Amino acid sequence: MKNRPAFTLLELVMAITVMGILASVAIPRLNRDLTQEAADNVLASIRYTQHLALLDDKHKFDKAKWQRRFWRIYFGTCEDKPYYAIGTDDDMGGSSNGRVDLNESAIDPANGKQMWAHDGATCEGSHTLSDLSPNDFIGKKYGIVKGSPTPSGGCTNKYIGFDHLGRPYNSGFVNSSTPDNAGRITSECILTFTLTNGKTFAIKIEPETGYAFIDGQPDS
Predict the structure, then answer these.
(1) Least confident of 11-15, 71-75, 145-149
(2) 198-205: long-range pairs with CB below 8 Å, 24+
């Protein structure tokens, strides 16, 4: 009889071990925790907004409306799904809901695209959807329901602005006509998001410091 190549018992055990390791890595990725992913996304964007405010001082003390230029993140709805956008009202044109124009929006460092969308039936408005960051569309990406977030605590609006010291604002600044620090958050702001599976998560923003974290995860 001729000798035929075959696996030894040791090689078989090693192969099974490697497959087990690969499975342990792959399975958690298949069972994605969309709630945690969504919370991480929103938290990172709020912190990015504050980061921009700290780096890019928008103060123009010779202009009465300069507080309108605060970097802000705002939450809107397009195609019946929530999104967020980040920007600064650079020309101080004012806005009832904190929105800014496309050319005033921030650039997503992850993909180089505009962090913007258009409220209404189409997310891109008169622009091109491919120019917009897909990370902004939290309704499409994670199944966050229309109407989210629900503001509470120190927040009454669905937008947060930051001054050059990183202090958070929730109203007043978007249409400010005089530098009076109107709308600065004085108690903990809570933004609660609901997913189509019924799960929720909340982002909390501390007054004065603007420190943001996921509720229940203070070290997030």
Answers:
(1) 11-15
(2) 199/35, 200/35, 201/35, 201/36, 201/38, 201/39, 203/39, 203/42, 203/43, 203/46, 203/149, 204/153, 205/46, 205/154, 205/155, 205/160, 205/168
Question: 194: helix, coil or strand?
Answer: strand
**107 beta partners:** 114
pTM of the model: 0.85
Distance between CA atoms of 99 and 94, rounded to whole angstroms? Answer: 9
Specify burial of residue 161 (Cβ count, 10 A radius: 0-12, 13-18, 19+): buried
15 or 173, which is more confident: 173
What is the domain count for the chain? 1
* Mean pLDDT, residues 9-17: 59
Residue 53 lies in a domain: yes
Q: DSSP code of 201? A: E
Does some domain include residue 135?
Answer: yes
- Concatenating the DSSP letter of every residue in 39-88 gives HHHHHHHHHHHHHHHHHS----TTSTTGGGG-EEEEEEEETTEEEEEEEE
Amino acid at position 121, single letter: A
Structural domain harbouring 178: 33-214
Question: What DSSP character marks residue 140?
Answer: H
DSSP-derived secondary structure letter, 147: T
DSSP class per residue in 10-35: HHHHHHHHHHHHHHHHHHHHHS--HH
Q: Is 101 inside any structural domain?
A: yes
- Residue 1 inside a domain? The answer is no
